[in-house]
Design a protein that fits this description.
129 residues; alpha+beta; ph1033 like fold; 5 helices; 5 strands; DNA-binding
Length: 129
DNA sequence: GCCAACGTTGGC
DNA sequence: GCCAACGTTGGC
C-alpha cells in the first residue's frame, strides 16, 4: 500500500493506531482492497519523496464503502501499523533484485494498492533485516 | 519541474 | 463504441 508521506506517513499511521485506508479512486486498486482478508499483512510504502518500504500494516477490518467517496463506488479497509522495518527497503534495491522485477511496484508504478506473492514478501522481509 | 504512463470524460 | 482532450500519479 502506497502513500505520499506528505499526505499520510508511517508516523501518522502509528499515531492514529487503526485507521481507514481511504481515498483510493482507481478500480484496480479498489479490487485489490476487496481481496484483502482480515489479518492479512501489507507493506507500507512511502512514494514520491522517499521511495521506501518502511513498515508492515495489518488489515483489521475488511472492505466497506469509502465515506469520503460521493459516487459510492470505492471502498476502504481498516489497517493498523504493526511493525516498523529494521531497515527500510528502497525502490532502487527492489529494482536491483531480479526476483522482484515483475512486481507491480516496479511494473505499474501508478497503482497504489497492489498484490505481492508470499515468495516476494519473504524476499523483501529478508532485505529489511 | 518534467514527462511518461495511465485512467476518465464527453463529444461525435 | 471510438478517441481526443484532459487530469493525476509518481519516478526521474
Amino acid at each position: 500500500m502506497k502513500s505520499e508521506p506528505n499526505a499520510w506517513s508511517w508516523d501518522n499511521q502509528v499515531k492514529e493506531g487503526t485507521s481507514m485506508w481511504d481515498g483510493v479512486r482507481n478500480y484496480q486498486a479498489r479490487n485489490n482492497l476487496k481481496k484483502m482478508k482480515k489479518n492479512d499483512l501489507c507493506f507500507f510504502y512511502h512514494s514520491v519523496t522517499e521511495r521506501n518500504i518502511v513498515g508492515i500494516l495489518k488489515v483489521v477490518k475488511e472492505y466497506y464503502p469509502d465515506p469520503t467517496d460521493k459516487t459510492e463506488r470505492f471502498v476502504v479497509v481498516d489497517v493498523r501499523a504493526t511493525k516498523k522495518l529494521r531497515n527500510p527497503v528502497s525502490l532502487d534495491q527492489i529494482k536491483e533484485n531480479s526476483k522482484l522485477k515483475d512486481i507491480a511496484l516496479v511494473k505499474q508504478s501508478r497503482l497504489s494498492v497492489m498484490p505481492l506473492k508470499k515468495t516476494e514478501w519473504d524476499i523483501i522481509i529478508k532485505m529489511s533485516n
